[in-house]
């Protein structure tokens, strides 16, 4: 031993063990080999970790039961660790390690549960109610009156893919904060188109959701915040927070709409109102496209019936084709009179 030195003592770094209920979309990242992460944001009710990933952005939210249950969240059954932005963490091998905490999932929940069949007529009837509730709320969207939002609504109503993509590209990353208003509008729209379109059997709405989702997520990682980019990828797959899912159930008639919408509108400074704005656009599009499809089916049915009647009228039953032809001509003249 060198004179004047003491042997260094190594303290074991112990972590408190905790469990939580995790979104099913986190299973792949939690069960993969451990990867480094860092604290992006820390609040009293939630900590957001960015996991190093080469492909799509991957942010994991560790939240308490009082926080919004985001589609990328683990809901903790213990106090949140005290951490600051920039602190190191790790995710993988079945756990999340951040601060003094080692967190494991004890159960999984689905952030995109299907609604089940919904009558398109129901959606058309509930649209004015949603519009009225949003319009009279004191919580206003952050992009109220924005031209890109108006263009998006018009494009979705017409199922215009070109205009929809143009509007969407203007909205990605538009606005301040961890989840810019433009992203929240797009997230609400994508979730509504996908869930309500599938529930009502409006394939055109699901088709529109697929293409808009591809456009929105293509370069979201470089155009908006990591948290918002992750949530856009979630919305593209139909994954949403508990508050958004509750409003969808309200629109489908599965629960009361007004209290569910009130809880959604209360989220953040404008996030809830922006999400509701997007959902309103999506609902209007699904209801409108369902009406167009029904009208097209009706016209097709009438045309088929007309052809059948014409075919029967021209049929030479009981005589020659010439007699049948004159009978048809006589009937036509009678209709003219």
Automatic annotation (TrEMBL):
Low complexity composition-biased segments: 296-317
Residue stretches of biased makeup (Basic and acidic residues): 326-337
Region (Disordered) location: 296-337
Source organism superkingdom: Bacteria
Record's protein name: DUF2877 domain-containing protein
């Amino acid at each position: 031993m060198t004179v004047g030195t003491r042997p260094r003592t190594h303290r074991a770094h112990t972590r408190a063990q905790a469990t939580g209920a995790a979104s099913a979309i986190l299973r792949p990242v939690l069960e993969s080999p451990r990867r480094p992460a860092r604290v992006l944001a820390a609040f009293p009710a939630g900590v957001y970790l960015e996991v190093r990933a080469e492909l799509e952005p991957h942010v994991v939210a560790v939240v308490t039961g009082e926080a919004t249950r985001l589609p990328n969240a683990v809901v903790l059954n213990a106090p949140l660790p005290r951490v600051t932005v920039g602190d190191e963490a790790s995710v993988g091998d079945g756990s999340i390690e951040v601060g003094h905490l080692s967190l494991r999932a004890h159960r999984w929940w689905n952030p995109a549960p299907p609604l089940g069949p919904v009558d398109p007529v129901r959606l058309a009837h509930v649209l004015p109610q949603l519009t009225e509730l949003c319009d009279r709320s004191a919580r206003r969207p952050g992009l109220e009156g924005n031209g890109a939002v108006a263009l998006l609504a018009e494009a979705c109503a017409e199922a215009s893919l070109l205009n929809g993509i143009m509007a969407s590209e203007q909205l990605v990353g538009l606005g301040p904060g961890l989840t810019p208003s433009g992203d929240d509008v797009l997230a609400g729209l994508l979730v509504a188109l996908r869930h309500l379109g599938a529930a009502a059997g409006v394939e055109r709405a699901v088709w529109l959701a697929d293409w808009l989702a591809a456009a929105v997520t293509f370069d979201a990682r470089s155009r908006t915040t990591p948290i918002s980019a992750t949530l856009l990828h979630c919305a593209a797959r139909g994954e949403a927070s508990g508050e958004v899912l509750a409003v969808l159930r309200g629109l489908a008639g599965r629960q009361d709409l007004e209290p569910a919408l009130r809880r959604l509108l209360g989220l953040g400074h404008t996030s809830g109102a922006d999400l509701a704005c997007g959902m309103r656009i999506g609902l209007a599009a699904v209801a409108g496209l369902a009406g167009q499809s029904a009208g097209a089916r009706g016209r097709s049915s009438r045309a088929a019936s007309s052809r059948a009647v014409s075919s029967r009228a021209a049929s030479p039953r009981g005589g020659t084709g010439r007699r049948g032809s004159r009978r048809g001509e006589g009937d036509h003249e009678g209709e003219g009179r």
